[in-house]
Amino acid sequence: xxxxxxxxxxxxxxxxxxxxxxxxxxxxxxxxxxxxxxxxxxxxxxxxxxxxxxxxxxxxxxxxxxxxxxxxxxxxxxxxxxxxxxxxxxxxxxxxxxxxxxxxxxxxxxxxxxxxxxxxxxxxxxxxxxxxxxxxxxxxxxxxxxxxxxxxxxxxxxxxxxxxxxxxxxxxxxxxxxxxxxxxxxxxxxxxxxxxxxxxxxxxxxxxxxxxxxxxxxxxxxxxxxxxxxxxxxxxxxxxxxxxxxxxxxxxxxxxxxxxxxxxxxxxxxxxxxxxxxxxxxxxxxxxxxxxxxxxxxxxxxxxxxxxxxxxxxxxxxxxxxxxxxxxxxxxxxxxxxxxxxxxxxxxxxxxxxxxxxxxxxx
Length: 363
Description:
Blueprint: H1 2-10, H2 12-16, H3 18-27, H4 36-43, H5 49-60, E1 69-71, E2 75-76, E3 86-87, E4 90-94, E5 99-105, H6 112-125, E6 141-147, H7 158-161, E7 165-171, E8 178-189, H8 203-213, H9 227-235, H10 243-362
Parallel strand pairs: 5-6, 6-8
Antiparallel strand pairs: 1-4, 2-3, 4-5, 7-8
């Protein structure tokens, strides 16, 4: 039986058939560590416990290091029936009692930070003991979250642009000193990690590079010649899988790709909506500008008409006033003429009276 199992492991492509031979070739040499199956194959088995310990030591840098871990049930039911069940990717306890939650998130979602806080709160809460002698002493709790997206896309500062690891603890906001050392959240943002294979120097850099690129590699690079990484590369070979594991990996990879398709379609839909909204807004602004210009031109025309009309009225009023003035002057002249005529008539009457008197005296 052992011989047959070994044969299956070495000849998985033969077992799955010619059709899947092409699939196996298309999948590459090594697994994608961001798939649920790939992540748990490398870190979630007793046989590969040393791989997880090496990774956690590189990330957490716990004084004295992690020597031993025990996997615990990743499913956590609430203390009451109405509480939701929490399922971690990995949950383990070190030989010193530290609780460590390891998560891989390939896509962002609402309240990702709150999710991490909730996870560590569950790991803290479950340490409580019902006996009266318990004095609230807690073991340290760590969350290591590998995310394939930027936690804050809007942060464009140069000093954080390539900062791919964040360590979060409770601190005093004024002194910036750590207030509580037993709670740590570590976020590894893969898109911010830009180093190439010839630029890797530290253990953590080598691990982060593999999360991003293991499935793209064709063979074991020289920089990964330590025993721990040799084991990882051997475990990650797709050709070494049993047919059952190969099937599970293909399904896990399909789930990841389907999710990528859904997310990309969602992003494309959002981009189309944003583009359409931008187009509508641009048209609205264009028409608003046109309306504003028309209104301005119309108002300008009205103003000009009103000005011209007012000007015409003013000129008519001026002409009318001039005519009145001229009439008054003419009336004045007539009055003066009439007065002069009266004067002359009076003088004539006086002269005639004097002439008549003179004639009377002559007789």
